[in-house]
Design brief:
The chain has 359 residues and is mainly alpha-helical. The chain has a single domain, classed as Orthogonal Bundle (ABC transporter involved in vitamin B12 uptake, BtuC), CATH 1.10.3470. The protein is globular, with a radius of gyration of 23 Å. Keywords: Cell membrane, Membrane, Transmembrane, Transmembrane helix, Transport. GO terms for molecular function: transmembrane transporter activity. One of its GO terms (cellular component) is plasma membrane. It holds the Pfam family FecCD.
């Protein structure tokens, strides 16, 4: 009677790989990247500091501690009114829009395998802006401009994606077609503004440059709900996008449903971008800079969705604070501040050798 061969057993791993840590909770454990978590806490700290400074700065200056206390309803009634009714709503709008644009930029850059593929550069911002402006100056409707921004963003994304043949290996073609689509919608926006009266043009002006001044509360709440629902989906897509950075044949061999993942990624990008543009207008350079900051801090080849959201929120609130205080009492729209900062940054991205590598 012969003995049955023994089956090989799985090796017991007692230590986490280099650069990772195991968090054990009884029978369950989580493997986390040390640098990703530490950079996340660093971005949270930076966001809190910038938020406190933003709440304290203005025509009536407050100390950061007084401003934070007023934000939760503590302190003098005048300080509470100033912070909660004027500054806090603006800060929340900036944090939410920055986070949404950061996530959208991170997803789209990874999908197109190019760091220049952002919602602003491929025309999604311009499409949303054109439809929002049209609802004010060209074809007045009962729908709010923020509602039509979603339609414009979807139209621009569909045109760019369809005319380029997809966003897979054709990353540069996708960008070039997107630039053309954005230029078309930008020209339509300028044409509508040139042929309308002064009052309507002034009403539509914030939608063309990007501003956080007196944003509609309904659009801000809708963005918050959409971001809360979209972040887990973005994290789920990030795992597949990490494998899709390889060639299509390799990703397919690893079990990634390419077509479904691309469609889901594009839909989520359009969704988040449209909700953000419906609040702040076109501030597309946040989507360019925030993912790059997140990748630099994380230092590994994953898709840093949450860190991109934190970086985008911090950059947006910082740019808004600079715009409010740099030439006070004159306010500079946040879109103008980001254009001044983002222009040289974009040139740096284009000129450095790593700009030709996939994100």
């Amino acid at each position: 009677m012969t003995a049955l061969p023994t089956l090989p057993t799985r090796p017991v791993v007692s230590e986490a790989p280099a650069g990772y840590a195991w968090w054990r909770f009884g029978r369950y454990s989580i493997l986390v990247h040390r640098r990703a978590w530490s950079s996340g806490f660093l971005l949270i700290a930076a966001m809190i500091i910038v938020s406190g400074i933003s709440l304290a700065s203005g025509a009536a200056g407050l100390s950061p501690w007084t401003a934070l206390a007023a934000a939760i309803g503590q302190g003098e009634p005048m300080h509470v009114f100033l912070v909660q009714e004027l500054r806090l709503q603006r800060l929340i709008a900036g944090l939410l829009t920055g986070a949404a644009l950061g996530v959208a930029g991170c997803l789209l850059q990874t999908l197109a395998r190019n760091r220049l593929a952002t919602p602003g550069i491929i025309g999604i911002d311009d499409g949303a802006t054109a439809f929002a402006v049209a609802s004010i100056v060209a074809i007045p409707t009962t729908l709010a401009p923020s509602a039509l921004a979603l339609t414009g963003a979807a139209t621009a994304a569909g045109l760019a994606f369809g005319l380029s043949g997809g966003a897979g290996a054709r990353g540069y073609r996708f960008i070039v077609v997107g630039i053309a689509v954005g230029a078309l919608f930008g020209a339509l926006t300028n044409l509508m503004l040139a042929r309308t009266d002064m009052d309507s043009a002034n009403q539509a002006y914030p939608w063309t440059v990007g501003s956080l001044n007196a944003r509609p509360a309904q659009a801000v709440w809708l963005l918050g709900i959409g971001l809360l629902a979209g972040l887990p989906v973005a994290k789920y897509l990030g795992r597949a996008l990490t494998l899709m950075r390889f060639s299509d044949s390799v990703a397919t061999g690893l079990g990634v449903p390419l077509k479904r993942m691309r469609v889901m990624t594009l839909l989520l990008t359009v969704f988040l971008t449209a909700l953000a543009v419906a609040v702040v207008g076109p501030v597309g350079l946040i989507a360019l800079a925030a993912p790059e900051v997140a990748r630099y801090l994380v230092g590994h080849q994953g898709v840093p969705v949450f860190n991109a959201a934190l970086a985008g929120a911090t950059l947006m609130s910082l740019a808004d604070w600079v715009g409010r205080t740099l030439m006070a009492p004159i306010e500079i729209p946040v879109g103008v501040i980001m254009a001044v900062i983002g222009g040289p940054y974009l040139l740096w991205i284009l000129l450095r050798p790593s700009a030709r590598r996939a994100p």
